[in-house]
Amino acid sequence: MIVVTGATGQLGRLVIEALLKSVPAAHIVAAVRTPAKAADLAARGVQVRRADYTDAASLQDASKVLLISSNAIGERLPQHRAVIDAAKRAGVQLLAYTSVLRADTSTLGLAGEHKQTEQLIEESGLPAVILRNGWYTENYAAGVPGALANGAIYGSAGQGRIASAARRDYAEAAAAALTGEGHVGKTYELAGDGAYTLAEFAAEVSRQSGKTVVYRDVPEADYKAALLGFGLPAELAGLLADSDAQAAKGALFDDGRQLSALIGRPTTAWALTVGEALKQA
């Protein structure tokens, strides 16, 4: 039995889709806060259980668990601890955790809780695999409609190169770790095969859309202020601005190609994700 936490989230749904390619639906558990949101998964035979990060009773008969990191920034650690403790009580054979690229040395502000969670997993003694996910290309592609409207992409990443991959690539990596052999004790640094600067990203948006879009690099504080102006919560705006600033220093770049090796194919070209965003713009 494979349990996926946060199964109705953007990554969780893709992980379940990937698992369904090789695992019987009845052997997959979607652990969700609101079961009604997973009615489509239940209709396909996936077991849907009500659970959250503070009540991990759904793990009782699990053999493998994917702990998708909580989106409650600043509150992740106690939530992750609850799942880890429950997994230990359940005697799971494998705990997989979605961390962040180079969590142990990263300068990203969001890396702290990931590093602490990795430490909790190590201290638990559970058989585990750490999936250190790099940036999702969708993080930037989501801003394509606004870029078209404003003629610009704003950020603080300077000339930093970003080795992102599509969310579905990371989902397939999680499924591979849960269903394959030899992953216990491994830590994978996962990132896209290709990389780009935000200026190159803007140029690709221009090329595919036929509209002029430029990249405007601004100080981190100004970028945070702009994000706040768009209505983002202060903590999220700060983390996004920090992530851009750290990207300028190389925090989102990796050329080890461990992601493509794990999924057995090249990662999705970032230009393809730009194209998908433009179709929806």
Automatic annotation (TrEMBL):
It comes from Herbaspirillum frisingense. This is Quinone oxidoreductase 2. The lineage of its organism: Bacteria, Pseudomonadati, Pseudomonadota, Betaproteobacteria, Burkholderiales. Residues 2-235 form the NmrA-like domain. InterPro entries: NAD(P)-bd_dom_sf (IPR036291), NmrA-like (IPR008030), NmrA-type_oxidoreductase (IPR052718). It holds the Pfam family NmrA.
